[in-house]
Write a structure and sequence with these properties.
The structure is a homodimer. By secondary structure, the first copy, chain A, is α+β, with helices and mostly antiparallel strands. Chain A has 7 helices and 10 strands. The relative contact order of chain A is 0.13. The first copy, chain A, binds a DNA duplex through α6.
DNA sequence: AAAAATAATTGTAAAAATGACAATTAATAA
DNA sequence: TTATTAATTGTCATTTTTACAATTATTTTT
């Protein structure tokens, strides 16, 4: 790109734009002129559960900087979209999924996160059912699932983002039925217990756990059993979606003290 | 400012900067060239408690746009500071206080929040002891405390920010000893009860409340009494700071169901 | 000096939730 | 028929929560 092109692209167009705003109707047009603009991106911490382990979806960057290093899926926010929309778009690109659980986590805005240019990142965490995912996965982004205990080195401050997301997941799952977002539509109680035990890296008493889960009224027992992992087979359950949505914000004390601080 | 000046300020300098980066060592210099930059600001939702009511600190804007309307205290993030630093700086300007409780709330990034130009706002909420504040208040910003039930119209999406902050305050105060941040160093149990009752717009049983509070081990009974509001007088208590800090993230179920959803 | 007034402080019993414990059941495989 | 495997289910002691009102310390009034 020539200097002249750059001139038009970066300088002239904004100037004209600003000039338009400086008509008598808007006497305050120069208000923000002095301020520094910066790039805004979205990064997604994507959790999944394959029935055994809680995992994280990462991509291998195909471009500089930090080419070939592992990274969270992210992208710049476009001029016409908000951060939530950007996160939804990026998640759709990566997983092919729509309507997944997505929540804003935190915004990382240290001046020197990205070596190229100042970029703030609005981080989101997502919970998806890996079975849904596997059907639609595109290898375009070199995406891979990693168990949480063996996450590779990540670019920029993505490691910190993951740590924060994990903490928030534990926090929230202790109080709200959020982990069901990781499960397929039909699941068994032993599977659910596995999930909780993996998330909290702890083991829970089956009887007490079942009692707690059942007392929430969230589960609908199905007639079919899953005979995959035992001779007796375990009954399938479904989420009572209405109950789930209506009571999502209510406290359910699944885990008393998620951080194990005495 | 002349066109030439603008030219140098906005165009030339960044161009040179980018050119520096485009040495053979960094073949990816143009990577982000196409992306749109935007303004990033910080807004602070400042809560205070005057002994009677939970209140919000607002300022009357002295400049366009939305001059004379009420607003949260905010400002643009500077090139050399992160968002947390910006929030601290802005809070210092408004209240004169340092070291106050400050927590990132949420980032608002809809494309058209500010009519002048796209600006994303990283919102923080702060809890301060109004007594500390009153000593240092500067009227420069036309700051005023408003009870939560009579907040005036606010600019942009600030109303939504306040609503979210209030919700988060309730949520967090139900589980963590965060409301102590609103109290002076010495306070009485009836005052603490007042605070909780005002925050949750509910009334709590004195005996059960006291028992709960005392069981946390957070309070140190003082020998003096506050005789301001009764003949008998109420003992002062202080926070056990060490205990407070060490156990802050631990769940203490002050309020069982903060949203009152049955 | 006694009584009244005011707000702070304190106790108890029933109900609910939790935590700690192992035997029984359903189905398949031997 | 028996052995095997994993799922399912129950009880009791402890802790926590809830519901409810009498007592106490001090000042003001009589």
């Amino acid at each position: 790109m020539s200097f002249l092109q750059l001139f038009f692209k970066i300088i002239f167009i904004p100037y004209v734009y600003a000039a338009n705003r400086s008509t008598p109707k808007r006497p305050y047009m120069n208000k923000y002129q002095k301020q520094t603009r910066l790039l805004a991106a979205v990064d997604c911490i994507v959790f999944g559960f394959d029935g055994q382990k809680l995992k994280l979806l990462l991509i291998q960057r195909g471009f500089e900087p930090e080419k070939n290093k592992w990274s969270l899926m992210g992208g710049f926010i476009r001029p016409t979209e908000g951060a939530d929309e950007a996160a939804v778009r990026i998640l759709k690109i990566l997983t092919g999924l729509e309507g997944v659980y997505l929540e804003q986590l935190h915004t990382f805005a240290e001046p020197v996160r990205d070596p190229i240019e100042r970029t703030i990142s609005i981080a989101y965490f997502a919970l998806i059912d890996t079975h849904q995912y596997e059907k639609q996965i595109s290898d375009e982004y070199h995406a891979e699932w990693f168990p949480l205990e063996s996450i590779p080195d990540l670019i920029f401050d993505h490691k910190r983002m993951v740590a924060m997301a994990k903490e928030k997941l534990r926090y929230k799952a202790a109080l709200h039925p959020i982990l069901f977002e990781l499960l397929p539509p039909k699941f068994t109680l032993p599977l659910l217990l596995n999930l909780f035990e993996d998330v909290y890296e702890a083991s829970f008493d089956k009887r007490n756990f079942t009692r707690k889960i059942m007392s929430t009224g969230l589960l609908l027992k199905q007639k079919e059993k899953d005979k995959g992992s035992s001779k007796k087979g375990a009954f399938y359950y479904k989420l009572d979606k209405k109950h789930y949505k209506k009571n999502f914000n209510k406290f359910i004390h699944f885990i008393r003290n998620p951080n194990g601080i005495s």
